[in-house]
Amino acid sequence: MSQASTTPHETFTLKQLVNPTEAQLHRSGQLFAELMSEDTALLSLCGGDPNLMEPLGQAMVRAGALEGEFYAATNEKDEVLGYVMTMPKGKVLFSTEEQKKLGFYDFMSRLPEVGKQYYADTLTMVDIWWIHMSMTRPESQRQGIASGLIRMILDKALAAGDVIGLSTTNEVNVRIYESLGFKVIGHKSCPSPWGEWKFWVFRYEAAHA
User: Are 60 and 54 in contact (CB under 8 A)?
Assistant: First the structure.
């Protein structure tokens, strides 16, 4: 499944990457670290160490590509301009040895003890279609990349009769996800040794499809 789009900035194709290349995965992990570098929630999960942001991103994209589904906007050089990673119903991020060996163990070994405890107490896994990552490089934003990729996932999940959820720690994203048909089902402030952060949890409302 793919969709092509031509914008005044750059031509890109939206598609599921069944076997993303190492270069695509590496760049996706870097993009996660770049975009989330000042996010208090992610900094907290990294035990307050911003240097662990990229190892976490690299572990997530690789685990998701292995046992989840990886959708991306790629240009004519097949470079990733933006991507969305989801774990379908029945698949949970970092739940298998195969996933954990792709960077998760390395990430955890570098966390301070307080960070390991905070990570264990905070991270919740949900057995539904869960969108873990939605990243678009700054110069490619506002071109419909993220929304187009998310709609591809919605179409697939809804066709199977499944529920789709996601969360955000950025209030700016709330209205964006609502415009796609998601409904806020929870909002919480979370204290951490590295600062308080907020997050919103969404569920897709099929009536908006």
Answer: no
